[in-house]
User: Fold this.
Amino acid sequence: MTKLRLFTPGPTMVSPEAMLAMAQPLDHHRTAGFRETLKQCVELLQYTLQTKTTPMVVTGSGTAAMEAGILGCCKPDAKTLVCHSGKFGERWRDILARFNLPHVEYQLEYGQGFKAEALAQKFKENSDIKAVIFVHSETSTAAVSEAQGMAKVCRDHGALCLVDGITSIGTIPFKMDEWGIDVAVTGSQKAMMLPPGLGIIAVSDRAWEVIDSHQAPTYYNDLKAYRKSIEKSDTPYTPNNQMISGLKFTLTQIKETGLENVWAKSALLAKATRTAVEALGLKLFASDPVDSVTAVAVPGGVDEARLRKDMRSKYGIHCAGGQGSMKGEIIRLNHMGYVDEVDTLGAIAALEWTLAEQGYKFELGTGITAFSKVIQAN
Assistant:
């Protein structure tokens, strides 16, 4: 009878109310009712992404939407700079390689975020760069990059700026138009507080010029088809209309709460969690920590797989482990979406209890107390 609380950085927890919004009788998607729901979603997405462009909804994960943006904006006769310091940045590099698109890599160690000043230097070394791809919030390492400054650098050098905002949009400050971002992508199972299944992409006028100048090597993920349909508040292919109903519900919640308040809540949860982790004598993994997810280095003598298994089976807290070379080295705790102070305090308590059971030495309650003090001070 243990209650499961998802602390994985995707999928995140979904509220009962959002589940009910998706549990209505199935209707056909080629109807006026569906088009009206999608139209409202687009308007709400404009608020969430802070853009006047027309966001498009793809039935697929965030990867599908990101691939659509990459194939549309990264041409075979132009060079792309792909920034990677984690598994998801590497994924965008791999898409470029799979489609034989010319690119250069800008790689940092896992846990580091990219800075605007360093990006400017890369343009000096490669003056023919036409597009830049980077992850705003690198989920695999819990590191943040300077999206606003990097977007300006791209603009200053006449290059498109493609941003993976899959774990930043709706969680930390993100202003597509004000910052000059050309392609912004997110997915339903993160800050949108829904199950996996929807990818969301918004495209600037500058990016559309490039997309229209060639035919991308894709069919289902052809952004031209989505643009044509969204002009009529429709989709080119069969949508997940139940989830789009859920998207309308959760986006309405975000707007009613206010973006600034959503950002502030995530920042507070992240700050309190980091304070608790350090009070326990544990180390944060990322040198540039993001507020959407916290990565914690597993201390010596503690079995990471057993730690996560016991946190879930005994206390209902499901956190994520590391990926690739970080497997067995870190755990990751989510601060996006439908999660609050009490949920997170429970996750810190479960972490303490399971660490103690494995013989890690600390004063029981230290992390809980540190977390509580940060919350009460705010």
